[in-house]
Amino acid sequence: MSSIADNIGSVTRRIQKATLKAGRGGGSVHLLAVSKTRPADELRMAYNAGQRAFGENYVQEALDKMDELRGLNAIEWHFIGPTQSNKTRQIAEAFAWVHSVDRLKIAQRLNDQRPLSLPPLNICLQVNINNEKSKSGCALEDLIDMADAIEEMPNLSLRGLMAIPDPDQPEAELRSSFRKLANALKQMRQEAPGCGPLDTLSMGMSGDLEMAIEEGATWVRVGTALFGPR
Ligand SMILES: *Cc1c(COP(=O)(O)O)cnc(C)c1O
Fold it and tell me: The whole model's pTM is what?
């Protein structure tokens, strides 16, 4: 069994290689270590190997780990799970990023509940890119209206878009899903330029991060390849 530090090394090399192959600048793709279901000790190992950004899907589990890992300097917490209205206050108070904002009601609550002592909460809009009935995420058609509304929310910083395309679809269709998300971000930059930095594409996981990087990912969310199967 390879160690978490080794795995971070090999995933980092995969990211560097794909970034170079895509002709993109070194350092333009960030690694989010998806640590759902993993114990705090394993996050500490990843931290000691240099990892700073961690992605969590469940609020209470994340808060427990934050408690255990308090004192780790510059650790950065990203919420990537389904957003429920009754959890927005805890999310707004504890996280630096939310990748999974899928409706305006959630954005408004996060804005209203973000403590003013903290910098604006970085958010991505999650898009249901394959229109799957079972998946959360907003429709591509709604993005511009949502961005216009978020422009009026001073405690949020709209960084971009996130998607979880079905990883089991044929390669060509998976690529086209990533490309659709990248094109949607370009369109937002043109049609809603004032709504936030719009510098982020959160897409790609353990199995498909190379393809996502070729299509423009700036954050890849990697769990299994770092921590092993869940
Ligand atoms: C679990 C999860 C991941 C990580 O997936 P792996 O295949 O384990 O790398 C990425 N993004 C989201 C939203 C997840 O829930």
Answer: 0.97
What's the gap in Å between 7 CA and the centre of ligand 1? 16
Euclidean distance between CA atoms 91 and 218, whole angstroms:
22
Instruction: Show the domain range for 92.
Output: 4-219
Q: Is residue 185 part of a domain?
A: yes
Mutate to test the pocket of ligand 1, among 10, 31, 34, 162 (most ligand atoms within 8 A of CB): 34
Rg, the chain, Cα only: 17
Ligand 1 atom nearest the C-alpha of 225 is 9
Q: What is the CATH number of the domain that holds 33?
A: 3.20.20.10
Does residue 225 belong to any structural domain of this protein? no
Instruction: State how many domains the chain has.
Output: 1
Q: What is the pLDDT of residues 37-50, one digit of tens each?
A: 999 999 999 999 99
Please name the residue ranges forming H helices in the chain.
Answer: 4-21, 40-48, 59-68, 88-94, 104-113, 143-150, 171-191, 209-214, 224-227
Q: How far apart are CA 204 and CA 179, in angstroms?
A: 12
